[in-house]
Structures are given as structure tokens and as C-alpha cells.
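Record pair follows.
FIRST:
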Amino acid sequence: MTYMPESVWELNITPNVTNGVGAIEELGAIGGEFGTGSALVVTDPGLVEAGIIDEVTATIDAFEYTVFDGVEPDPAVGVFETAIEEANAVDPDLVVGVGGGSAMDVAKTTSVVAEHGGDVLDYVAPPTGAGEPVPGPGIPTVAVPTTAGTGAETSPVTVISLPEEDLKVGISSRYQRPDTAVLDPALSVSLPPGPTASSGMDALSHAIEAYVTRPYDAKPAPEHRSERPDYNGRSPVTDLFAKSAIERIGDNLRAAVDNGQNLDARREMLLGSFMAGAAFTNAGLGATHAIAMAAGAIHHTPHGVTIAHALPAVMRYNATSAYDRYAEIAEILGEDTSGLSRDESSEAAARAVEKLAADVGIDGGLSALGIGDSDVAHLAERANQLERLLAGNPRRIDRDDLEAIIRDAL
């Protein structure tokens, strides 16, 4: 069959974004727009203890609400199932996910499974799940991020841990994309420096990988629109989102870590994270996230920290396929590339990422997370199985290449 390149790109993002200091005060009005009589708030115990959930629920006291606070980091399938049981019990008109990516992911999947029935794994791709498509929209969902990192507030994907199998799987459906994202930087000021740093590096990696991923017209055309993947390649619009995100995060992550009450820095980080999410959920990611997902499943390493350690090594590997773009990234991150060769400019981008990570307290390489030389082969094998992520990597990559990257990142 003759190869037919793609000639069409799509852009799918959360249809409503409410942004700014005090935006959470509009949550009640947003619920009213959906005809809400009752709501399920999905969150974690830390935000309850911090008093943030009290602030959120105070804005929706015009209707009944139930708080499910059983979310944990890297939530296992059982957490999703318990949240769905809660939704089935209270029959909400609105689901509100408050927190980091874990809380928002549980909220999004709860919305569609509670609406359409079945088990969580029914909607996970084979061989782990049944691979059934989500049949339609779920319960209206509002995402309220309290970290600037995952981009889950505009993502159609949720990540589910299967700890007994050392595996992370996902559900991908445009029906999981939230109906509204509420970005209020005031809700993030209590986030400690460590999570601020790690989530910020995750957001930066989303933007960088989206900016260098393969373009939409360097991929095969689908036979039908419905077969176009969510990660359909970078486009002029994802490039705009990605570049703006790199600049906002590069300029403000240090300030947000050094002084959590710096609302200007928090606002720029939250917006940068959203823009990075809009970029990567359309353009795609690459080897950095394949390595981090595999490491998280096998070694239970913190995602953002793993990303920060792996990203420079991946950038060095990919340089030969994206010289010009890495040179732009170096300039955006404050490096002077005038007079430098293309190799030197690409290396300047990798060094700028390393310096940013070190400045916010993340250094030492993957070895600092307990990953050693003896772990490399297994980790590379698992990362190599994540074809959905690797499909967008700008340079062809196989298991041997992944081993070399991981060794470089130790």
C-alpha cells in the first residue's frame, strides 16, 4: 500500500477555562450552568487537612455535595472503583476533581464509568483490559488543579496503577476531558517546595516533548477521522502553546519554589502547566515519559522527579533530529546560543534543563531514586513497550537506545 501522510490536524482542549485569583469563587455558578443539584468532590486527605476543600465546598453550598477523599498518589484501580461506588450511591449531577493529577484522573474516570456502567478495566486497552470505547459523555466534570504540573485538567487520559502487576495502564477518551477547568493560583500557595519543583519539571517536560515531537504531517493518515490518535503530532497551534509554556515555567519555577506565596509566579506556573497540557495532549510526548512511566510502575519513583532526571539525557539523544528546536528551547530558557554550533546549542538546552532542576532541588540522576545499573535492561524493556508514547519521539528509538539513555541519566 502506498504511504499516505496525514494532512489534517485537530486541536481538542477543555472547552471552558476559568482562570485567575479567586476563580474558585465561581464554582457554584459553574455548577448552576450544568443544572447541578448535587455534586461529588473527589480529592485527597492532604487537601482536606489543609483546609482547601473547605474553601472549595463553601462555594457550592447552594446544592448538596459529598466529599470523597480517598485519592492517593498514583492511584490503584481500587481507588477508582471506590470513587465510582460513591458516585453510584449519591448519583451526582456534577463531579469536581480537586488536587493534582491523581485526583483529577479519578474524577474524570468516575464521571464516565458512573454514567455508562461497567468496570474500570473494561475501558483499558488490551491485553490488560477489554478495550471498550467510552460510549459517550459522562457526568459533567470540573477540574480544579492545586499543582502546576500534570495538565490533567485538559487531558483525555487517566493513569491507573496495577500494583500487583507493577504496571500502569490508562484510559484514553475525549469524553474524559473535563468540561471546565478552574485555575486559581491561590489554591496552590500551600504546596510545599518539593512537590512544586517536581510538578513544575513535569510540566516543563510536557512542553519540551510536545515542541520536538513529530509533526502531524510526518505520520500516516488514518482511514477515518475516528481513527486519528489523540496524540496526532505537533501543529502550529501546539507549538504556540508549548513555547509559551516553556517560557512561563522557565521564568517562574524557581520563584514559585523559593516563595510559595508569590502569586505572580504561581499564576504563571498554573497557566504554563495548562498550556503545556494543551500542547502535549494533542501533539504527543516521547521517550522521557516512557522511561518515567516504566520507572514509576517498577520502582514506584515519583513521576516529576523521574522526569527531571531523564529529560536531559533524552534531549541529548534526540538532538540530531531536532537541532533547531532545541536551540530555540535553549534561548527561551535564557541561554545565549549566538556563535554556537548546532551541537553546542542543543547541549545548551539540555544543560539549561539540568540547571533549572538543580536550582529547585532536584539533582543526582536516576541513581538518587535507587535505580542502578542492574535495573537498566528491565526498565528499558518496559519503556520500549509504551508505543503510544514512543510513537512521537522525534528520533527513531529501540530498546538498546533506551538502555543507553537510562545509563546516561543514572
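SECOND:
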Amino acid sequence: MLATTPDFWTQLNAEPTVGTLSRVRTWIRRFRRRVPEAWMKVTNLSSKMVVADRAQVASHGAARRKGLLGRKGLDSGEGLWILPCEAVHTFGMQFAIDLVYLDRNHKVKKVRSAVPAWRLSACLSAHSVLELPAGTVLATQTKRGDQLEMSPLTLR
């Protein structure tokens, strides 16, 4: 393994060489493969409605940074659950989204509907954010204080 070589950290802190950079890139690729893609079904226990059939979990750096950027839209029932997260932006996005800010117990702290592109939104008391297609919050009657349930989903 890369990190077990005796002079790895010395080489890493020294002036980078082609060999060192290549080994670091290889290690990063291996690490990315170890992070499984997770999906959840999100249910609003207060209104007894399904908020998202397929919410992708973005819990590691690359997925959290990318978010929904580069996508043309979200289908009905889709979503992205970013954790931990207290704020999101829609810079460069091509569609509006609904935002549901959650605490650690999945209780809704704040809701924003149809947030258009080029906006910032934050809730500093939140632990995570659920990004949904515009109109989902109204359709599922999700509001502040509601309790959401996250159930693991296996996709084939």
C-alpha cells in the first residue's frame, strides 16, 4: 500500500516528482472506489407521504462538492441528501430545487421551495440538507418541525 512505504511522507512533503504524483493519484483512485454509493427512501412521518423514492447520499468530499452540478434536472422521486451540510448554493445550476434542512435526528429545521439558480441558502442549526425537485415540498406537505425517516434502499 502506498502509505506504508517508509519515505512516503518525506517524498510527499518534498518537491513533487512525476513518480510521487502518480502514486498519490493511484491512492486517491483506490480510495474513491471504497466509498460505496448509497441511496435512501425518504418518508415524512408527520404527513405520512414519501418525499423521495431515490435520494442519493453525498457524504464524502467529491460527492458533496459536486452535488447536482452538471445535471439537467431531477426526476420526480429523486433527491440528493448532503451530510454534513449547513448551506448550499445553486451557482451554475440549470433548474430550481426544493431544500429541506434537517437536524441530526432528521427533524425538519427549515424548508425552501423552488430555489432558482444563482442563489445561496443556509441554516446554521442544520446537520444535513435534502435537495429535491422543485414542487416536492408543496406536494408532500413538508414543513418545519416534521420528522423524516431515512430508509436504506438497494438499487439493482
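COMMENT: The chain has two domains: 2-34, 38-153.
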